[in-house]
Amino acid sequence: MIDTVKLLSLAVATPDNIILQSDAAETAGRLFSERFRDFKYLARVFESAGIRKRHAARPLSWFEEPHGWQDRMGAYTEVASDLFREAATNALQRAGLEAHQVDCIVTASSTGLATPSLEARLAGEMGFRCDIERVPIFGLGCAAGVSGLAVATKMARSRPGAVVLFVAIELCSLAFRLDELTRPNIIATALFGDGAAACVLRAGAGGIAEIESTGEHLFPDSLGIMGWKIDDTGFGIILEQSLPVFAETHLRSAVAGILDRSKLSLSDIDRFICHPGGAKVLTALEKSLGLEEGALDIEREVIGDYGNMSSPTVLFVLERAIIAGLPERSALLAMGPGFSASCITLKRVA
User: Fold this and answer.
1) Cα→Cα distances 249→22, 252, 254, 277, Å
2) Is 142 a catalytic residue?
3) Per-residue pLDDT tens digits for 128-173
4) Catalytic residue among 104, 142, 199, 274
C-alpha cells in the first residue's frame, strides 16, 4: 500500500505594521482625489470590500513617497525573510520537527524577487541541511497557495517519509503605486495586504488531513484578467473588472472537471475552502458552486482581518477551518493569473 501525503502542520505570519481600512481610505483620498477624476466613484470600494484592517511590510507613511525597484525589492527581501522564518519555524515546531529534518522546500511568491532565493538566504541561520532540495515558484499569483501546495505534495509523494516544507509568502503592498492613476491601482490600495503561511507535509501516518487529489484548469484566451505589468518603477497590477462575472460563469465547470479526473464530483465535497479574492468574488464563488449565501463565512472573516494577501490567504482560511473542525472531505480552491483555477481535496484524518 502506497503511503498517502499528510498535512502535518500549518502556521501563518504577518508583518507588524497594521493599516486600518479607514486610514487607508483617508490616505488614498489625499493622494489621488485631486489627480484622478474617477477616484470619488472608486473610493466606495474601501467600504464595500469588507476589510477592517490589513498588515503591511512598511508603515502607511512609506507609501506616501515614491519608490523604485531598489526600494521595493530591498523591502521585499527584508520582510519576506522575516515572515518566512516565522511561519516556517512555527510550522516545524507544530509538527514536532526541526529544520535539519526538512528534505525539500517549496517556496511560492509572486510579489518580489530575491536571488539567491529566500530559503537559500535563510538556510544557514535556520539550520537546513546542505543537501536540501529547493523549489522556488514565481508567477502563480493568488492561485499559488493551492497550486504550490500541490507541487509540494508531489515532492512528498515521490519520496515517502521525506519532510517537505511549503511556504507561500506575498508582500502585495509593495506594488502600491503613486504614479498609476488607474482603476486597478485604486482597487489594489483598498484590497491587498501582506502575509505568509507554511505547511509541513510527509507521506506516511498521522497528520491533520490527507491530501487526496490535486488539479488545475487553465482557461483559454484569459491572459488579461489578472497579472503584473512591469516597468521601471516596479510591478503594476492588471485586474479586470469582469473577474467576479467570469468566476460565476466559468468556475463550476472547471472545478467539476478537476474533480472528475480524480473520480470525484462537486457533491462529494463537504466544504469548499476558498481563496477570498474580494467580497464580490466570494459572492460569485457561492453562486457558481451552488452554495448557500454566506456559506463562505470563514473566508469573509479572513479577508476582513487581513485583506487579500494573494497566495497565503487560502491557507489562513484553512487554518481557521482546521480549528473549527474539518469535515470528512474538503476542497481548497483558488484562482490566479493565467487565468487559472487550482483545487486540492483534503480528507480528514480520523
Assistant:
1) 33, 7, 10, 16
2) yes
3) 999 999 999 998 989 999 999 999 999 999 998 999 999 999 999 9
4) 142
